[in-house]
Amino acid sequence: MNMSRDDGKTMNGGGSLDIEQLFEAARDEGALSPEAMQALHITDLGAQIQAGFGVQVDDVASSEVVLVTVMPDDSGSIKFAGNARAVRDGHNLVVSALADSKQRDSILAHNRYLNGTVLYPYCPIAQAVKMDTKNYDPELGTPLYDQAVVLLGTVIAKAQEFALSGVPARTVTLIISDGADAGSTWAKAKDVCALVRDMRRAEAHIVAAIGIDDKNTDFRAVFRDMGIEDRWILTPKSDAADIRKAFALFSQSAVRASQGGASFSKTAAGGFGA
Description:
Protein name: VWFA domain-containing protein
Largest sheet: 6 strands, mixed
Distance between the termini: 41 Å
CATH topology: Rossmann fold
CATH superfamily: von Willebrand factor, type A domain
Helix content: 40-55%
Strand order of the largest sheet: 6-5-4-7-8-9
Organism: Sorangium cellulosum (Polyangium cellulosum)
Number of helices: 10
């Protein structure tokens, strides 16, 4: 039986495999470049990544999994612009669409807010917690680069954990922000880019972004600097209907990507327009 520990380690039937060992295994397989390894070691991320790990591999019956990971912006500007409800509704739409899909038994979801709060670690999509006014009150900053590294490190480590257990894992990740980075203390855009670049090269990951218009930020430039491809960037207006439409496009892409190898590859290549 697997047990979780609070020191960044995952216990597996008497042995242990910590986050560092998962990254080293990915590096040894050629999935992580020296630049990506450096990005993951700017600071100690073990405990933060472990907080998102959730369900144990042995508790997942599916022969393959799709990890759907979202990072909603919980900065104060979301509330100030009146977009908190639209972001909640958008997230909940994604969860409902995936939970209603034929592939639901193979989908695991994880939600980490932009300022590091884990709403739910990886769990079966049917158990994903809906966002509401009690668990989502955006009033913090925008440490976009710091938390993107944590988020992507979690995705990479969790996918590697499944792979080492013989369970193929594909991933679909969404980063949401309504502003440029403000508050990161240790990571830069190039660090995020190193991770995204390696993930794209592995052809088992999709990294997407939604930049909610703040009348000031060139989100395509911001996300391109982070390594995200244009076809996986949406820039809705600061408008509830437009924001929900962007989340709906992501949910459609995530459902398509979860349908299997060929569908994943086609979706990854086509972006939101696939």
